[in-house]
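User: Earlier you gave me the apo prediction for this protein. Now I'd like the version with zinc ion bound, so I can compare the two side by side. Same sequence as before, with the ligand SMILES added.
Assistant: Got it. Here's the input I'm using:
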Amino acid sequence: MTNIQPWHSKRVNDREVYHDHGNCTEGKTIAVYNRTPGTGGRLRCEECSRLSQSSK
Ligand SMILES: [Zn+2]
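And here is the structure of the complex with zinc ion:
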């Protein structure tokens, strides 16, 4: 589960962050049809940052 392409939610009510880790709780709750590929110029989700550091 490495080298995942980042994604972010297209729903306006979701936080303006992007996700790039397959185990992120928040990232996983975004339905596939609500996902937009790429970072969208957003900040990285802090859980994704933590997960990627701990899984090295
Ligand atoms: Zn995340």
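For your comparison, keep in mind: The longest strand covers residues 7-9.
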